[in-house]
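Re-run with default settings, no changes from the original entry. Doing this only to confirm the output is reproducible before filing.
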Amino acid sequence: MSIRLIVTGPRSVRFQEVPDPDCPADGLVVRARMTAISTGTELRVYRGIPVDREQKYLYPGFPLQFPVENGYSMVGEVAEAGSGVSEFRTGDRVFVPQPHQQMAVSPAEVATRLPDAIPDHVGVFLSIMEVAHIALRRGDVMPGENVAIVGSGLIGLSALAFCRAFGCRTAVVDLDRNRLQVARSMGAAWTGSPAEDGFTNRIVEFFGGQGADLVVEAASTWKAVETGLDVARSGGRVVVVARHTDQPHFSPVNYPYLRKNLSLKTSYGYPPAGQRWDRRRSLDLTLDYLARGRLQVAPMLTHQFEWVELPDVYSRMDSGEAEMIGVCINWT
């Protein structure tokens, strides 16, 4: 028997004993070493907030019903490989997109072997870092560009780390001073809060009086989208990577934004296999940057807890402890 975490209803979680899983021919059984909390997604599930106006779905295509597992980031060891799997063997240390549990079954095709140079507490955030990586690719990021990141949670700070690795000049926007301090420690060239007087003028001036070439919105509010449209230069690009459950309070295609000739995009998932930045190529670059120290993410990895503390960790994050950014859970 093994343990998994389930959300039984809004703001209600518990551990459940389940039989150890069988290994499919094309899959792996993975024994967890660490899991990571994706703060935005997991808190939304913990709170029971749907993704659609009709309040039918917890995820796209997944009905809003409980109990449900939570999380999608695990580093573990291969306990068993299926008879049809040749690329992994018992004992391999892998990342798999699986929820909080001691033993997980994963298709072999979505497992990623981790280089020795990447420790568990870094590798466990691989999927979350990739969300930021995909968003920047979606925004056609170029070396040396001016990039504004609105929201400095895990996705926003991961985007900052990639921007630093890509040679971009980066500003980070958030309402929380502690998170802006983390952004500065990760190399943000400018930080500021929209609540400050003259905020828009100051960030535009920082970018040479024109604004940002590219804006990544990672704050999950329409107010943040508005901020992104405000600070983008004429002809700039705005990429929305955060999931939104609130409703817009303004028109993104009316005055004053229509005259700016902006490109507004959303980002969700990898492009099809075979494209330049498909899943495999994107992951390979991220792993290479992490292993060689080009992707500096240490300041955003703020907390580690034991698995028995997970319910309390959710409660604390739900109550607004903004200093908890990169949170990983130890299962060993």
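Residues 129-266 form a domain with the Rossmann fold fold (CATH 3.40.50.720). Residues 197 and 203 are 12 Å apart (CA to CA).
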